[in-house]
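Researcher: Next sequence.
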Amino acid sequence: MEINLQEKFAEQYYKNADAVYFTPGRVNLIGEHIDYNGGLVMPCAITLGTWLAIAPNTEGKFRFKSVNFEEFVEADTKSTYSKNGGLWSNYPLGIINEFVKDGKDISGMDFLFYGNIPIGSGLSSSASIEIATAFALNDYLNLGYDKLDLVKIAKSVENNFIGLNSGIMDQFAVAFGEKDKAIVLDCETLKYKMVDVNLGNYVLAIINTNKPRELADSKYNERVAECQSALQLLNKEIKLNNLCELNAEKFALHSHLIEDKTILDRATHVVKENDRVHMAAKALNTGGLQEFGRLMYASHQSLRTLYEVSGPELDAVVDFCYTYPNVIGARMTGAGFGGCAIALLEKGFEEDFAKHLTDYYVAKIGYPAAIYISQIGNGPVKL
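Model: Next structure:
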């Protein structure tokens, strides 16, 4: 942590924090835009994240402050809450709303958040804040929830309080992450297994395009609707609960039902991307990092041409990585339309990579990207 949060808490609230917690962000290594189609995803927690300091107060108020934002938000203790515009504090407020609806007795609490996840980058700063709040309150107040309960509560906040039709992957990855492991998660059943990610002589480079993801929410919901259209058309012939029940071979037998090219492209991406996750897990289990890298490039190409959620900025990063000899795989990660790409970069080339990528990106896009080197880290902890 680059700052002393206890010190900052004392500056803000004129008392010491009772407890400090850390919750990571996440990247999805492969399996993009299939969490809401009941498929397999392969996220991991990263070492960037959200720190939260808390202490009770006697005023019966929830007070939300952040080192990263100027807004100070205060809410009285009551039986229900509603979203307050576009404020960042909606995420912790939504968690409190879910706890209160579930009959938990929560009264005045002071919160101070600090995060080093680039906001709006696609590294799940929102899920990190949600799980940070839920984990801290559950631990501090002994509310009795297990980790999966907290994940479901946080997803409900995202869907019903914030209003984004996202799947469960982000919250799950943030809560269940383990050092040097990826999670192969079935988003339909929530069954999961941990896969060792032995990066050997490689590191995970995270490249933030620095393009604001203003399109992401509306386009995200549009893609959800397009996939639902594909499912309805396929259900004229076969009975499916979600698109990822099909593999590429079976999909080919029934794809004639989808006459609209755009809808067909969306469904094709979903089915083939789900197959790629199976292949990626096999590659990691056998130490096949080169094959894993090839699958990353294939994933990005599909997101670029079939699902159309990439864009000039993300494509510029991946195009550069493809020509850089010490990168073995790269792809966009997250919802797209800006945000971040990830790359498997050979150790020792971090500075050279950053310099040459920056030159290339500025020439193409007109402003620099931000480059972070991360490890695969653990889920939430009390510090």
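Model: The first helix runs from residue 5 to 13. The mean pLDDT is 93.
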